[in-house]
């Protein structure tokens, strides 16, 4: 796409319609269409009502939209990941001309984005995989955007993307992170961290609600206070709001009428799978994915609560301890996200700029928080062993908060409260501060049953133990 490319968008759902209004508001012309045609008319009416329809062209279907667009064209897809994207690309390709660009702006498995990039570009078109974060409000008023594609593809869309992106102190929260799947992978890891942070917040809520008998609105007030301090973030802000909301039918807390089964569309799972595939572990993110899966087993959990009748001891935790525990958990989840980015960047030769990732996440996206400026600064400075948790700033915060995390997890475990993500953060930190661990025993076991050999402490490799004598 060049600067003069005609812009189109397919998929006027929650994200696509909000992003379209954002694009129009920033003064760009836009062609739109949707699978269900009547949605197009509804959207055009919405844009007219908002005074944003001057540069808008609605079309009944994809073929008509492409025909109405002067080449070169750049067509944004904002539709569910997987088969819908493949089917849409297949429908789109016969109508495109050389030099046209397809931008998949939905969430996508980056392996699939790599495959699509190769297939589409082999036919002479340009393909961009772009992660967009910020939910509906972000898409409407300025999301964070993570772009993957060739440098030429990025330079062709840069003006539009930076124009519609969230701004942090005037700087656009959008950047190009590498070729093909790099942008979608950065977005996937963003979502993995999102899962972890949401789970850590939910566990902290649970300790106050179930362990200390605080009402949702009381806990909401605690989160509201925390949002003015070190935990300042979008997710803590919205948690304070949802916990203080009342159900319009019962008048009781809104959260109490919601079934405790978390949905998941796949991005958290993709992050965990990729971490393990890359020989990593992001155990806080993995715990969050697991917790969502277990949450959907409501009937089994109900049966388990009757069989084990586990006592849920009364907790008396300091609010400051809970705040510090949540902060340390959050730091670990960010750190684990960046460890996966690092492993993938090495594996796929992406050279991802981690400081820029942190900067792009400072506004517009779901995991924006006051920590991200410090994370960017840490990546620009000296990072011992390349580990975010060892940077001066974060080592200090972790050292200060670790005793509180230990007290919170200890009390929760003793009282029978499930805190898989908080406990995982503690397990990770305790492991990472243990000079000599217990994998010597694992190596001995492997050698015993499988002749796998081990490295002696003097450096000699392929050694065997005395077990078979
Ligand atoms: N909601 C969010 O907070 C965020 C979502 N995303 C991603 O953005 C993308 C869109 O999500 P969202 O707007 O929430 O989804 P919605 O369900 O609100 O909208 C989905 C859109 O995709 C269209 N669609 C559905 N199935 C097909 C298909 N088989 N072929 C072509 N078009 C189809 C729908 O058309 P129709 O109207 O005809 O049904 C609709 O326009 C997804 O990839 C999602 O993961 C990314 C960041 C945040
Ligand atoms: O990308 C997003 C936010 O960043 C989407 O809202 C996504 O749907 C969230 O994931 P899940 O539906 O699995 O909770």
Automatic annotation (TrEMBL):
Catalytic activity annotation: 6-phospho-D-gluconate + NADP(+) = D-ribulose 5-phosphate + CO2 + NADPH
Keyword NADP: yes
Domain of life: Bacteria
InterPro entries linked to this entry: 6-PGluconate_DH-like_C_sf, 6PGD_dom2, 6PGDH_C, 6PGDH_Gnd/GntZ, 6PGDH_NADP-bd, 6PGdom_BS, NAD(P)-bd_dom_sf, Pgluconate_DH
Pathway stated in the Swiss-Prot or TrEMBL entry: Carbohydrate degradation; pentose phosphate pathway; D-ribulose 5-phosphate from D-glucose 6-phosphate (oxidative stage): step 3/3
Top EC class for this record: oxidoreductase
Keywords tagged on the record: Gluconate utilization, NADP, Oxidoreductase, Pentose shunt
A matching Pfam family: NAD_binding_2
Gene Ontology molecular functions: NADP binding; phosphogluconate dehydrogenase (decarboxylating) activity
GO biological process, one term: pentose-phosphate shunt
EC number(s) reported in the record: 1.1.1.44
Family classification: Belongs to the 6-phosphogluconate dehydrogenase family.
Subunit architecture: Homodimer.
Function per UniProt: Catalyzes the oxidative decarboxylation of 6-phosphogluconate to ribulose 5-phosphate and CO(2), with concomitant reduction of NADP to NADPH.
NCBIfam families: gnd, PRK09287.1
Name assigned to this protein: 6-phosphogluconate dehydrogenase, decarboxylating
Organism: Octadecabacter temperatus
């Amino acid at each position: 796409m060049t600067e003069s490319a005609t812009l189109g968008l397919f998929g006027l759902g929650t994200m696509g319609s909000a992003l379209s209004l954002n694009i129009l508001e920033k003064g760009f012309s836009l062609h739109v269409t949707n699978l269900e045609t009547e949605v197009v008319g509804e959207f055009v009416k919405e844009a007219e009502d908002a005074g944003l329809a001057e540069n808008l062209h609605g079309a009944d279907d994809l073929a008509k939209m492409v025909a109405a667009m002067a080449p070169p064209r750049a067509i944004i897809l904002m539709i569910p990941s997987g088969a819908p994207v493949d089917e849409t690309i297949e429908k789109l390709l016969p109508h495109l001309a050389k030099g046209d660009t397809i931008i998949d702006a939905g969430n996508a498995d980056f392996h699939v984005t790599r495959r699509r990039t190769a297939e589409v570009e082999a036919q002479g078109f340009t393909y961009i995989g772009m992660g967009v974060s910020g939910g509906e409000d972000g898409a409407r008023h300025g999301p964070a955007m993570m772009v993957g594609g060739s440098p030429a593809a990025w330079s062709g869309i840069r003006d539009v993307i930076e124009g519609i992106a969230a701004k942090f102190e005037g700087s656009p929260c959008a950047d190009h992170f590498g070729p093909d799947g790099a942008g979608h992978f950065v977005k996937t890891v963003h979502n993995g961290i999102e899962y972890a942070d949401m789970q850590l917040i939910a566990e902290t809520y649970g300790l106050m609600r179930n362990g200390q008998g605080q009402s949702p609105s009381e806990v909401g007030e605690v989160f509201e206070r925390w949002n003015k301090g070190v935990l300042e973030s979008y997710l803590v802000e919205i948690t304070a709001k949802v916990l203080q909301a009342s159900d319009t039918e019962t008048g009781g807390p809104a959260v109490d009428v919601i079934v405790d089964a978390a949905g998941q569309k796949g991005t958290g799972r993709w992050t965990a799978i990729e971490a393990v595939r890359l020989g990593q572990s992001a155990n806080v993110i993995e715990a969050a994915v697991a917790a969502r899966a277990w949450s959907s087993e409501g009937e089994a959990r109900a049966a388990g609560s009757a069989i084990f009748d586990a006592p849920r001891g009364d907790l008396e935790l300091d609010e400051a301890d809970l705040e510090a525990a949540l902060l340390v958990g959050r730091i670990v989840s960010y750190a684990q996200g960046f460890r996966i980015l690092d492993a993938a960047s090495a594996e796929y030769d992406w050279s991802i700029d981690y400081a820029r990732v942190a900067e792009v996440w400072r506004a517009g996206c779901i995991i924006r928080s006051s920590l991200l400026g410090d994370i960017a600064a840490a990546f620009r400075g000296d990072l011992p062993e390349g580990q975010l948790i060892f940077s001066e700033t974060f080592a200090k915060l972790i050292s200060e908060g670790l005793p509180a995390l230990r007290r919170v997890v200890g009390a929760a475990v003793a009282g029978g409260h499930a805190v898989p993500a908080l406990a995982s953060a503690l397990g990770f930190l305790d492991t990472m501060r243990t000079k000599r661990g217990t994998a010597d025993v694992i190596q001995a076991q492997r050698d015993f049953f499988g002749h796998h050999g081990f490295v002696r402490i003097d450096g000699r490799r392929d050694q065997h133990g005395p077990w078979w004598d």
